[in-house]
Amino acid sequence: MSDGKAAGTHETRQRIVTAGTELFRRTGYTGTGMKQIAGAAGAPFGSIYHFFPGGKAQLGEEVIRTSGAVYLELIAELTAPYADRVAATAAAFTAAAGTLAELDFADPCPIATVALEVASTSEPLRQATADVFGSWIDHLADYYAGGGVPEPAARDTASSVIALLEGAFMLGRATRSTAPVLAAAGAAAAVVRAALDGA
Question: Once rounded to an integer, what is the mean pLDDT over residues 154-164?
Answer without folding.
Answer: 97
